[in-house]
Design goal:
The complex is a heterotrimer of chains A (about 325), B (about 290) and C (about 290).
Chain A: H1 23-61, H2 63-68, E1 70-73, E2 78-81, H3 82-113, H4 116-128, H5 134-159, H6 176-200, H7 204-212, H8 217-246, H9 249-254, H10 272-283, H11 287-320
Antiparallel strand pairs in A: 1-2
Chain B: H1 13-48, H2 54-58, H3 73-104, H4 109-122, H5 126-139, H6 148-173, H7 176-184, H8 189-217, H9 221-224, H10 244-253, H11 257-286
Helix pairs in contact in B: 1-11, 3-6, 3-8, 3-10, 4-6, 5-6, 6-8, 7-8, 8-11, 10-11
Chain C: H1 3-39, E1 44-53, E2 56-66, E3 71-75, H2 82-89, E4 99-107, E5 110-111, H3 119-125, E6 126-129, H4 141-151, H5 158-169, H6 173-176, H7 189-202, E7 207-211, H8 219-232, E8 237-241, H9 245-251, E9 254-259, E10 262-268, H10 269-274, H11 279-285
Parallel strand pairs in C: 3-8, 3-9, 6-7, 7-8
Antiparallel strand pairs in C: 1-2, 1-4, 4-5, 9-10
Helix pairs in contact in C: 4-5, 4-7, 5-7, 7-8
The chains are: A mainly alpha (about 325), B mainly alpha (about 290), C alpha/beta (about 290).
Chain lengths: ~325, ~290, ~290
Amino acid sequence: MEAGSVATGGGRSKLERSPLSGLPDKVLRWGLTALAAAILLLIAYFFVRLYSEARPAFAKFGVLGFTFDNNWDVSKDVFGALPLVVGTLITAAVALLIGVPIAVATAVYLVELCPTRLRQPLTIMVELLAAVPSVVYGLWGVYVLIPKLLPAEKWFANTFSWIPFIGGGTVAGPNYFIGGLILAIMIIPIVSAISREVMATVPVEHKEAALALGATRWEMIRISVLPYSRAGISGAAMLGLGRAIGETIAVTLVIGNAPQLSGHLFGQGYTLAAVIANEFGEAASDPVHRAALIAAGLVLFVLTLLVNALARWFVVRAEKTGGSRVAEGMAG
Amino acid sequence: MNAQPASLPGVSPRRRRTDKVARVLLLSATLIALVPLVLVVYYLIKKGIGAWNLDFFTTDPSGRFFGDPGGIRSAIVGTTLIVGLATVIAVPTGIGVALYLVEYGSESRFANVVRYFVDVMTGVPSIVFGLFIYIVLVLGGVAGGFAGWKGSIALGLLMLPVVTRASEVVLKLVPDSLREAALALGAPRWRVVWKVVLPTALPGLVTGSLLAIARAAGETAPLLFTAFAVKATTTNLGAQMNSLPMQIFSDVRQAQDRLVERAWGSALTLVGMILLLTLVARLVQRRSRLA
Amino acid sequence: MTLENASTKAGEDTLASEQTEQEASRFERESDATTKRGATGRSVTLRGLKAYYGDSEAIKGVDLDYEPNKVTAMIGPSGCGKSTMVRCINRMHEEIPHARAEGEIKLDELDIYGDDVDVVAVRRVIGMVFQKPNPFPTMSIYDNVAAGVRLSGHKGGDMKQTVERSLRGAGLWDEVKDRLDEPGIGLSGGQQQRLCIARTIAVEPEVIIMDEPCSALDPVATLKIEELISQLKERYTIILVTHNMQQAGRVADTTAFMLSGELVEVDQTEKIFTNPGDKRTEDYVSGKFG
């Protein structure tokens, strides 16, 4: 017998492949590849359809006109989105200013200072902040946060009225500040989670180097952990920004939904996401209004894409100096 | 012998103070971050429990402005059906894409592009998903106007990147040595995936999917212009359906006491469901044999 | 240039070189002063030292004396506890969760595990150089050397001199004097380790622990560091952990052999390697195990 051939009943060597044997593998492989390709096509289609539906609005007001005109008037069918864009930016800024320092501080505490027994329970609790749905935060914001904070907001606006943007108007119940505050609460879990992952990858030898020189715990964090984690934390903050920009339901319930540029922090406002949620009902019958809302959605989409791309870039840079599992923490 | 006795250099009180202050601030920040969680849970229970009774779960919203506002049965049924269908769409697809990325494409350019765009999808605001489905399916008049299944697709799109990313992580954790051992025994690739990789990764895949479901159950925006909302209980996914988030959203905006009370009860129900799913997900994760 | 400019410039140059000479002689005077202090350096005494990781006892009661201004090598097979033990001396051991140490460690007469002793101060006085060179990755060469000094609030004009003195003391000055602003991690492995040594001596410790400082380096770099160790002992007490017996033979005055968390034998290096008292020592140094 020749080496390599084993006779079987049908006269065909056992080692030869039957024409059908590779089929399931091929099917699986090409099926999954097609699936993956379909995802890409879907996203491209996304863009195309969004743009085509939004076009009437851009055609009527111009792309720049739509985005930067300060005049959102439903009754007159005039749609300039500046109050929405500004409202989005203000609430996002408040969210970052309040949320990022707190989130990074919790990350530092949980990774570097927390007693081992408390670490898991406290971490789980911080992550549970993300389990509360947006609409529940909205409900709580309207009926708990707004009434309870109103006196404090009024006092604050009075005491610091000489600071531009703080004073200068009546303090409304729903306003930019509450919107930003709720967003801050909502971005804390994700900013904290990614910051924690980044800080956990600081090589222990750098921390030991600082301690061996006679550094206190805080000094060690200051010279070894934080500089090393800078890029990753920036990425985390940008992801938080992306989330803050796109958040709809909680914000629309607490911001007042007034399509105006209130000149102060405690005034009512509007955001791109909120206007879509709010006005879609009435826009169903008005093609121009509808196109305007879809255009607002497109602006929102592009904005979040840019911010998230930037965030990704920061985190990849952080990966290059260390932690390789950070990007996985960014999912969802 | 040294002329001076050994002594340690002083540590300036300023440094000690800074260290202490820093520790206190960092602990405080952590506690501050948890205050909203505590407050939300507290008010949910305080204001929501009162609304819970048999009628609450067994009757539909009546739509009446005065008198009995009714319960939330249609919302619970709706959420279960819509999220259920979304799960059926998103979980196999998501795991499929993850399988592609890990088993067949790990370093190829195409796979990296897919991975990048899946990542991009995680950052898309949920309302944009709803908008997209609205344009393609509702405006386009595909099989009628608003419908439950269209909401499912919107939620499915939301869940897809979450499931994919979580599954990819888990599949990567399956040791290559397992795959190689199976291949060396003469098994074709598809068998290795079906009989070795997937079963090993199963707990992790289940965890990722449960967490995605928990996330989707709470979403309102994708349903706003896809499934819309009706008051009556229906199991017909081809027509408009109610859902818990939509019901809460609608009740909150009509600032009427009994409706607000119902909103708190619904919120407690919704959060309860989500916490249950999260808990089960974490328990399943503990039973995983992978990292 | 014109004659006047030339002569002015010559004058400036002379002034500059005079200044350099003055600085150089001042460095020598300062070094002498340090040498004078260090020449009567500190001893480290261990009595009944035990160290635990959780419930597991890693160091089982060690008595050992480190003589001032000498190099004492700690040798022994992997896992014998040499690193654990020296980390008790600068109180780094307790940084590991659930780890603790018991017993007495004295710096001359001072008990560094005393109740009101600040561990931060202990680490200023007892420095450490690690197995893998670990300059701070986000800092320049200059900032790396200055890092420890800055922590204790030392500021201002002194810093430049301190950095130069430390880099000279580590034998690195000439190689980096023109690129002090470059990142510390841009140096070669051996240079990075000397940078870490400069960083350690910048805070003017009295004892330096070196935990296998050459095991990540090539032979040329290793030799340079060994030369450095022989110079450094004039000012500091050196505790050198090494798995390389030839290295101990080359640089150490005293050698201590450890096995399974116990001190087996300590004596003059030559005696340990040529005529050890304990059979286990003899087996180890003749290569029968480890």
